[in-house]
Amino acid sequence: MFPNGGHMRLSPEGSQSPRTLQTAEATNFAVLRVGVDGVVRHADASGEALLGEVCGVRLETVLQTTPRTPVPPWSGNALLLCREGPTACRATFTSLPGEDGLLVCLDLTPPSADTLLSLRHSGLPVALRDADSIFRFVSPAFAALFGIPERAFRNAPPESVLPKSSARALRQADRATLLRMEAHAHTIPLSAEEQPVRCTSIPLPRTAWGTAVLSIVLHTDDDTFAPDVDPASGMGPYAPWQILLDEMPGLLALTDFEGRVQLLNKAGHTLLRLPDGIARGRHRAELLPERIAALLAADNERMQREGTPSQLEVTLPRYGHDGSDRTFLVQRFPVRDHSGGMQGVGTVAMEISALKNTEAGLRQRLTNIEAMVATRTEELRVANEALHRSSTRFRALFDYAPDGLLLQRDDGTLLDCNRMAEATLGLSRHELLALKARDICREGHALPVPESEDTPLRTRTELLRGGVAFPAEVSVRSLDIEGERTLLVALRDISSRIHTEHRLNLFELVFRNALEGILITDASGAILAVNPAFTTITGWNERDAVGRNPRILKSNRHDRGFYERLWHSLHERGAWEGEIWNRRINGENYPEWLSISAIRDESGATTNYVALFHDISDLKAKEAQIRYQGMHDALTGLPNRALLLERLAGELKEGQGTGRLCGLLYIDIDNFKTINDSLGHEAGDKFIAEVAEHLTLLIRPEDTLSRLGGDEYVILVANPGEEREVVLVAERILHHFSQPIALLDRELHVGLSIGIAIHPADGKGPDELLTNADLAMYRAKAQGKNTYERFSPHLHDRIRSRMELEGRLRHALRHGEIVPHFQPRVDLATGRIVGAEALARWTLPDGTRISPGEFIPVAEDLGLIFDLGEHMLRSSLAFTRALMDEGLPDITMAVNLSLVQCRHADLVGRVLAALRDTGVPPERLELEITESAIMSDVTRTLRRLDRLAALGITLAVDDFGTGYSSLYHLKHMPLHTLKIDQSFVRDLPHVAGSRTIALTMLAMARNLDLDVIAEGVETGAQMHFLRDHGCRVVQGFLFSPAVPGDRLFDLLRRGVCFDVNVAPGELSFDHP
User: Fold this and answer.
1) Alpha-carbon distance 834 to 1011, whole Å?
2) β-strand 326-336 against 342-351: which pairing, if any?
3) 1001 and 880 part of one domain
4) What CATH number has the domain bearing residue 535?
5) Helix, strand or coil for residue 283?
6) pTM of the model
7) To the nearest 10°, the Cα dihedral for 972, 977, 978, 980?
């Protein structure tokens, strides 16, 4: 669970000679200067003592790092190949100014020599193995865990002392730990029979055996090997690590992802100036400066996302005993459980204050040296012009020149080179002088040759370094050296310069082509540069804007406080971002999203400000459009519910405490679904919009007309003088709509139901007032529609009950709670069942039955009667199909059609679809239509009935004699059957009027060649009378009420024949 850095270096007793220790003490810190070619150019005294003559040697041959070639700045563990043998160290790579190579600082400071002794006496099961898994140290507790003597582990591989499964587990753990160089949680089986124990292994890069692995057993089933820890310490499962970490130098800590400390060793307490043991359980914000705590919190979030370690450099101000700053290199890594899941964060901190101070001193020394070299180079240049024939001074200039220099003959033979030439071309002096000038040039390129000594040539070409071409700037001058023409070639690698030029060109392209306006000022606010997008947005061109202050864009729409807050943010945070209104050159104000950043130098002083902005005028317009759409009805453009409630709330607030009135009229169009279904949805939408236009003309400008959706409107009557004025608005609306509305070449009569609620009597808040107006509207519908009703408290319970029934009805239709029951039709000649009428029945899940007389009118009011009728048709046909599949006797299934279904333009298509989907022949279906349905639209209804009859479907007039149809229309209808309503059958044969009506209908049916069915037959007398006068088929309680499908199925399967010889005076409710 702990990092792969640390500073623990473990050594066995006697493994280091006194000389080695003495050398290490004298050479704990070394500095190397490395050229851009990776060759060591200089080593301080400590470096030479450790490595010997190292100048001219490539760094990678004496220092091994991962990665192989670190990119500065970099710090990490490394292996130094000293004269005395390989030694682990801490290496820090820093770039030198002027692209002149690297500064490599090596830290070989040894840790405490008592670590192994502390681990031995800690009571912890601990083992140390080298990179080949050879045991270098085990504690007595670890040896006891396996029941093996401690001495048997010394310098032994796992396979020679442990069971095969244990050895294999340790080697796998070592590979995983060293591969990732972070803590690895795993298990070790003690034997084939015993349960494995939990263990954690951590990498140790700096030991006398090179990189090693330290393992600690955390838990066994019986805790036999648990260390002796005071239970009151509160350390719990972290106690073993606490004991181990307290022996380690440097800060070592374990925290959860929220920042609470789980473990902190003694060195950490000392570093943070805390009493021992006080940090556990505390939040980092209580222990660290706010800036450092925030930095670690951000790193925790990154680690949770990416699951990778990190390395930070942190400075604690005034933490030294002398009040100086202390700098630490902090390594952080995820702590994982046995399944690989992240549980927290491990942290190791190493103080590098001395290293930083040394680096700063070396940098200063290097700067001074470079300044001296530059001065000397200039002197040598002057001396070369005056004394170019002097070989001694030429040599000095040659060797110390900042550019690579070559001397060559006319034939291309290289005579000499300086060190920079070696570094630039990646070749030693010996290798270079064995080549011709053409050998260092890319194919197709050559060094230029001047015509005379007075005409030096400068050009760009491509040279080779390790076989790879790179761009170079070359200058060639002809010299006369000891009477022989010689060429002096100066060359410089310009890869970085070209890269910088490309980047500058790219930045220029981005600046010029950015869609956002860009403005750059100096520290005083004077404009230095603007891009074309700035001109496009503001109208100010670059020529007119440069030199001015950004106040030229000020719109005067913001107060002084706004700009004070802006500048406060720039001074404190170095940045500000937000929405601002500015002014174009033509005086037009516009909104923009502006981001300003302060550019500061190394001292923290502001040198420039950079502003990026884009015009958000279109965005603002879209926001306004979205707000309008969110507050208005798309079809009519009227305010919607949200805007209505907003205005209603404002009206109530304005009149609060004044007794001021406010009225709501909740309006619903009567029978709108019938219009929508018969004329189509497009016509329905036009009808809704037309009603809205009419209502708009009937209200005052200060009132609000809104549409809540569907066919519902609400009028807000603002500040009426008295309640009567609200009622007058309702009466005016009803009077207006008493006249038909023209729509699609039709005149439509509109009925409205209006509910009235008046504040404060009928509601205190907007929602309550709207709800009560809605309830009053429902009461108006119940009163017969096309009227208005004022809210009163006693309406509440009654309308609530009705609304609950409506909700249940909608639910019942969605979930199939309404099902068909079937009342058998009996042939009075045989007593057999020849047909059945499908009747809707509704039973709630709790067993409560709701009568059709209760829910059918509600379905009609809600416009659900069409869906109910469609459901009954398809369910009945599906049952008929089931009877056919079982080979039961053929019967005719009678299904009632509602008025809405009859008026539907696609009635025939829907019936055909139901027959086709169920596979029932048309002749097995009888459709019952009421007189009122036929007479509501005779022409269209007859056309549809003709098409249905042509298909072979039987058509019957239901409730015949209760309506107002004429014999003329009856004669021309494609009917097959007349049904005698039960209201006429009920009084047979005793009441003369009922007898006359029944006999008349039977005679008329015979004359029109129609079959007759009598419903509601409950007595033998009724049956005998009807049969004696020519009625062949009846239905009623005398034989059977409407029964579920399975009951009718059973009757047909058993071939039941009803008793048609019941004595005339008997009333029978006994059914088979």
Assistant:
1) 13
2) antiparallel
3) yes
4) 3.30.450.20
5) strand
6) 0.36
7) 180
